[in-house]
Amino acid sequence: NAGVTQTPKFRVLKTGQSMTLLCAQDMNHEYMYWYRQDPGMGLRLIHYSVGEGTTAKGEVPDGYNVSRLKKQNFLLGLESAAPSQTSVYFCASSPETGYWNQPQHFGDGTRLSIL
Amino acid sequence: AQTVTQSQPEMSVQEAETVTLSCTYDTSENNYYLFWYKQPPSRQMILVIRQEAYKQQNATENRFSVNFQKAAKSFSLKISDSQLGDTAMYFCAFFISNFGNEKLTFGTGTRLTIIP
């Protein structure tokens, strides 16, 4: 029962470097999400996808790009990392929305530090 | 815009006691969903309980129950017979589904510690 798997679990970057966070789900979910979690704050939505080939902006999309080329994968990219992007990143997935049982299944998170 | 407020940053309670975590929200929508998530030190977000706004009956999941007051826009979580494994951050979340604009909004969380 893999569920939602995030890779890597931890990474340290220098300012200006680029990287991609990978999220994979094996539940055939249509919807996938990327959140960031900062100290003293709740999760904030960065980008989300409602199906293969689609992406949409969330609450805090600036500085990030995403792609959903395959239904099971949702990639989050940082083109030029900044210290303000130091955070814990969570990926989540859910079945097709519109139903009340809409729990999102979360990955274990990726701790990203930008020096 | 929707907002979710958790006014208790930290709480602690003795094992086996009952504790209530508060959550209020603000929205102009009539149909929405509310959730409580638990985040233990392992960091994984775990769904604890969920409530549909149009249902008047409060949701219950074993030791976890909610007090949903729609008019007051309040959604508190009660944990009965608390256990050491309940120690975690608890997040209240609000979900609204407008086609093409789905969003799950989280509160800032309450850190709950169960004392042996």
Record the SSE blueprint.
The complex is a heterodimer of chains A (115) and B (116).
Chain A: E1 4-7, E2 10-13, E3 19-25, E4 31-37, E5 43-49, E6 56-57, E7 65-67, E8 73-78, E9 87-94, E10 105-106, E11 110-114
Chain B: E1 3-5, E2 10-14, E3 19-21, E4 24-26, E5 33-39, E6 46-52, E7 60-61, E8 64-69, E9 74-79, E10 88-98, E11 101-106, E12 110-115
Parallel strand pairs in B: 2-12
Antiparallel strand pairs in B: 1-4, 3-9, 5-6, 5-10, 7-8, 8-9, 10-11, 10-12
Describe the structure.
The complex is a heterodimer of chains A (115) and B (116). With 115 residues, chain A is an all-beta fold. Chain A is 0% helix and 48% strand. In chain A, the strands form 2 sheets. In chain A, strands 2, 4, 5, 6, 9, 10 and 11 form a 7-stranded mixed β-sheet that branches. Chain A has a 4-stranded antiparallel β-sheet with strand order 1-3-8-7, with no helix packed on it. In chain A, 34% of the residues are buried. The mean pLDDT of chain A is 90. Chain B is mainly β. Helices cover 0% and strands 56% of the residues of chain B. Chain B contains no helices and 12 strands. In chain B, the strands form 3 sheets. In chain B, strands 2, 5, 6, 10, 11 and 12 form a 6-stranded mixed β-sheet that branches. In chain B, strands 3-9-8-7 form a 4-stranded antiparallel β-sheet, with no helix packed on it. In chain B, strands 1-4 form a two-stranded antiparallel ribbon. Chain B is globular, with a radius of gyration of 14 Å. The chains are: A mainly beta (115), B mainly beta (116). The A-B interface holds A 31, 33, 40-45, 48, 50, 56, 58-59, 88, 90, 92, 97-98, 100-104, 106-109 and B 4, 33, 35, 42-47, 50, 52, 91, 93, 95, 97, 100, 102-109.
